[in-house]
Structures
1.
Amino acid sequence: MATLADIDGWTPNLDLSGGYDSRLVLAAVVATGTNERYTTRTVDHGPRYAGDYRVGVSLARRFGIRRERDRLPPTTEEAEDQLTLWSATLLGAYDAYGPARTTRAHSHRFGLTGLGAEIHKGQWGWRTIPQLLDLAVKGGPAREALAAQLDKGVASIGADPALRDASELYYLGYRNGVHGSAGHIGVEMTTVHPVMQLHLARLAHTPAEGRRRRPGVAFRGSAAGIADHTILLAPDVAAHEYDDPARNLDRSYIAERLRVLGGPLGGVEPLTVYGRPDSVVDGPSDLSMSIARDLDLVGPIAAEPILARAERALELLDDLELRTAYEATFDNARWRVERQGDLRLAHLSPARMSMLEVFRLAS
């Protein structure tokens, strides 16, 4: 955090919420005394997340960090770039549609997030691979296909599928990398996830005795390490209210954890930086964009054209079981679009149908 704040002409900006993860990054900012060089972005996602937004704003005010505007500026690219960019980057391999623009929203800015805390807390419940498979799908061809892929994936990272933490090892090997980069990698490569540290992952996979409901005593599958780390860096940041009152840490608890952990941590000097971030290339590769255009993957990411293209792709499936599975996905996609109105809020099924078209065209 100290190093990023020390680079002339660039501003580090933290996506700040009311939970544990981004707060750990904020604690590092406060611990290094670089508050005035940072900005934050808190996004209002509506009434359901009102508490998260309110606490994010109050954190920025409490610790003197300037807030950017709440929402990204409108995109300026031509509509035909939207489907092309998605096809050249995410391609249905990650959640829904995005990124929404072909150029970065802000120049000379390091984006910072709390992504990566999942490698410590766990994302899939610390299960064996058979248990993870049972959680995902109960039977039929989809289960057989997923089982085959899980077997290949676990073997490729050298894990035993019967291990109690196999699901999280699999997460580290596959989902974590996509989850940590999908929102920005197709547009710019100067977003940083400071919590994505190998040491935290290693700590999470160290056996621990017992489980406690309160954070503070580390065990697999908890936010304990994230909370402790925040306490070690900046006790005042850890003591500030959270989006969920059940997460709040009182002063006596924080003092006890500091005593046990031997904190707080001391100051650090910025690292030496060689080169300039200005020289890092932005945007998707010309090759991937050209391939997508050659496959006629152009046009807006809008409900009517996307569903029409998906229906045409569906008609070309010869295998009855595969077609039946995708017909259910298509029906779900159409229902979600009608319900949500906005295709980008329609969850996964519309993007899965677009991915089917990509495979058809590429074959």
2.
Amino acid sequence: MTRKCLIIILCGIPAVGKSTFAIDLLEKLKTNDADELRKVATTWVCFDDIIPNDGLDVEYLVSNPNDESKRHGIWKEYRISILRTVDEIISKIVKDGAPLLTEQPEQDDGTDNIYKYVRTKVQKQFKSSLQKFLKTNGCSCSDSKDENYEMGTFLDQDVLNNTNFIFILDDNFYYKSMRYQYFQICKKYSISFCQIQINCPLEVAVIRNRSRRSRVADDTIIDMATRFEALSGSGKDSWEMMSIEIDGSKELTEDTWLTVFALVQKAWSHPVPPVEVEDHLQKEESRLGCLKSIIHQGDQTLRRLISEKMKMNKEEGMPKSQMKVQSLKLNQARQEILESLREGTLTPQLSDDWDIENKLRAIFNQHLDEHKKV
């Protein structure tokens, strides 16, 4: 089974034409010359259609991105919920496939209301786009003639299993960190990623915004334009290499669309390479567990070596007063060796219990000889 997936980030300040571009891109993907791009289920996720403006002071949030106020917390929760839902859908695309079409009954799993709302909205958009794609490609269904049939009734698994997916994520994304979160999803699942920044003169965006039904304050657009962190396709952030900027202040030319699809095809053919995932916490816990075991065994071994040495001194007739001094010196050597093990300044390569005793015996005797403790 071959299945590809691509995330396209559309970013730019309000009213530069992102949504208009997204609608045009959806149509052009259907008629693109590249067969692999034409036969995809494309989902457009417009953040403005999901995150309500009621009660959210956008101007304040842009100016105070680190404020942990209630309003900022709600706004941030919406964005996290979208990210989480996109991650969940892509996980199923990559791993499961067919279960994507199965309607699941609503369950009260204790999930917060914002996440439930966002998940429902995004999943509905995704399933609608997938349904349209499968019907267009002749996917057979059950005998039901109802256009509103359950999405779980698709039968042509060959079509489904070879379906590719594109997600167009339409938002301001004015901070790099917002965009990088989705790059991390691509890296996590080794899928494709690219970015398109829509630009236009600030004064044009302000004028356009005033004629929109859902407008934002002029100062908000100005402030966001000031704070906007532009793409760095050829800069130091290598993860943004698959990026272009286009002028949204005028009608896009054929050359511009050729540039757009050149980027999309390049990203499509070069998914983000997977990185070996290391659970640093687990790795550290394993290291500490191993160290603890070595120190414990080392302590037992050193105590046994001290006992042997004291027994030998006694058999040789060493006076009790000298035996007491000798015992203190030997235990001091034991403590110094254990401390070196804890600090990592002493790292003997140990393979088994027998090797541990032999190595520590040599270290113990060398330590005593160097400090002339015997």
3.
Amino acid sequence: MSANTSDAEEEILLYAAFDDSIDVNHFRSIHVLGINESNPIIQMDDTFFTGEYENALGTYMFFEEDLSAQSEDPLLDRLPKKNLKYVTKTRKLLEMKQAYVTAKEDQDIQCDSIEHDSAVEVVSFSNLEAAQEKFRDEFKLEKAEAQLKLPDTETEVLKSS
């Protein structure tokens, strides 16, 4: 655990398995949502994947390239082109499947089915400027009415004593 990590945080690596046709290196941005939930979502650019935790058969190990690898006997020992060193292991497996996101259809029908409170007035505007003007005028009116209703504090105090 690093010095910046608090006692309440714990870092756990897990292995996320995608279809063979997915090359993670081609994506520019990766966002993970709900990693602690039973079905996390991973968004890579505009592509979405839903995951499901599964029991791993064995242990998944993580390696990184070892740039400081040296041979004890440079004459007889030959180092491979790429040397790896062990980092950590995990037993968490997240099986990812591509999800297809579609826009909701009939948005107006869904809005009509919501029951509106009779005290709330439904207002529609032709553009943003008209809405801003309407609310600006109403705010000024409410502010003026509130100032008229404020009691004069000196008169109130005299009446109560």
